[in-house]
Design a protein that fits this description.
This protein is mainly β. The chain contains no helices and 11 strands. A hairpin with a 6-residue loop joins β4 and β5. The relative contact order is 0.32.
């Protein structure tokens, strides 16, 4: 079983930056997929960025491409989402996701495990 522990959410002004972290615990495989989804009030959960566990196959949603970067620290079993040039429309609860099948994960159904979620708020 996989456990995902997130940290790093908060509030930032438009144009600012935040980095989210997700510690992955449990038995993992290099063809698994790790990534980030987000859900704004009244909206469906949407994929933001995903890649294979241990790297490769990186995918970004069009809305965040060139602004967000997904990365991993193998020694720490941690995935990161670096968010720059942030916009008010990036405001949402961000969830770390982990799946043992499809990569990239473009739909919530592609993820088998979820973190607890962390709030990100971007003000004008």
């Amino acid at each position: 079983r996989i456990q995902l522990t997130e940290s790093g959410g908060g509030s930032v002004q438009a144009g600012g930056s935040l980095t989210l972290s997700c510690v992955v615990s449990g038995i993992t495989y290099t063809n698994d997929c790790v990534g980030w989804f987000r859900q704004a009030p009244g909206n469906e959960r949407e994929a933001v960025a995903t890649q294979y566990w241990r790297g490769g196959g990186t995918w970004y949603a069009r809305s965040v491409n060139q602004r967000f970067t997904i990365s991993q620290d193998d020694a720490k079993n941690t995935a990161y989402l670096q968010m720059t040039s942030m916009k008010p429309e990036d405001t949402a609860i961000y969830y770390c996701a982990y799946g043992g099948g499809t990569c990239p994960m473009k739909r919530p159904a592609d993820s088998h495990y979820w973190g607890q979620g962390t709030q990100v708020t971007v003000s004008e």
